[in-house]
Write a structure and sequence with these properties.
heterodimer, A: mainly beta, 7-stranded mixed sheet, 4-stranded antiparallel sheet, 11 strands, 0% helix, B: mainly beta, 5-stranded mixed sheet, 9 strands, globular
Chain lengths: 112, 111
């Protein structure tokens, strides 16, 4: 099992550009999550999904969109990138609610 | 906001036990205590979790006080590779699914 994979590893965006962060898991997990981590801080939840076709907002959803068309994939879309979105983004998955979460390696995004 | 209080940093000598405390005085009766760690900006890694009984696995032990207002994560023989930020988490989001992280404890293990 590859676990949770994320692409790209690094990206630099200009203000106003858009991009999609990819996340894939091969563990047949129902739950998937997107977190962001700013320097020196803990992770904050952006969006999560409890299964294909079902998504919901977390603590900091503004400026982001998600979709979950398959069990495996949970892409995060940034529209009109802003410097405040400079962060490290982590995707995670779990089989059941409250289970151990498996995290991907992260995507380091800089918006200038 | 996170419902836990952890010291910002701790030091431990290699080979000794590392005891990481966590206060969670407002924990609810059905809330679990989770521990994760993050090594040098990698994705967080699950360590252990428990409700009210003490738990042990191949990585660590979790001791929860009888009143459940605090807990201690024990790494029995710390190694240099255990240097990381350790997060104690006792609440999930409103849906009861995702973790809510605080700032954690930075554990530095030295030889």
């Amino acid at each position: 099992n590859a676990g949770v994979t994320q692409t790209p590893k690094f990206r630099i965006l200009k203000i106003g550009q858009s991009m999609t962060l990819q996340c894939t898991q091969d563990m047949n997990h129902n739950y998937m999550y997107w977190y962001r981590q700013d320097p020196g801080m803990g992770l904050k939840l952006i969006y999560y999904s409890v299964g294909a076709g079902i998504t919901d907002k977390g603590e900091v959803p503004n400026g982001y969109n998600v979709s979950r068309s398959t069990t495996e994939d949970f892409p995060l879309r940034l529209e009109l990138a802003a410097p405040s979105q400079t962060s490290v983004y982590f995707c995670a998955s779990s089989y059941l609610q409250g289970d151990e979460q498996y995290f991907g390696p992260g995507t380091r995004l800089t918006v200038t | 906001d996170a419902k836990t209080t952890q010291p910002p940093s701790m030091d431990c000598a290699e080979g000794r036990a590392a005891n990481l405390p966590c206060n969670h005085s407002t924990i609810s009766g059905n809330e679990y205590v989770y521990w994760y760690r993050q090594i040098h900006s990698q994705g967080p890694q699950y360590i252990i979790h428990g409700l009210k009984n003490n738990e042990t696995n191949e990585m660590a032990s979790l001791i929860i006080t009888e009143d459940r207002k605090s807990s201690t994560l024990i790494l029995p023989h710390a190694t240099l590779r255990d240097t990381a930020v350790y997060y104690c988490i006792v609440n999930l989001n409103q849906a009861g699914t995702a973790l809510i992280f605080g700032k954690g404890t930075t554990l530095s293990v030295s030889s």
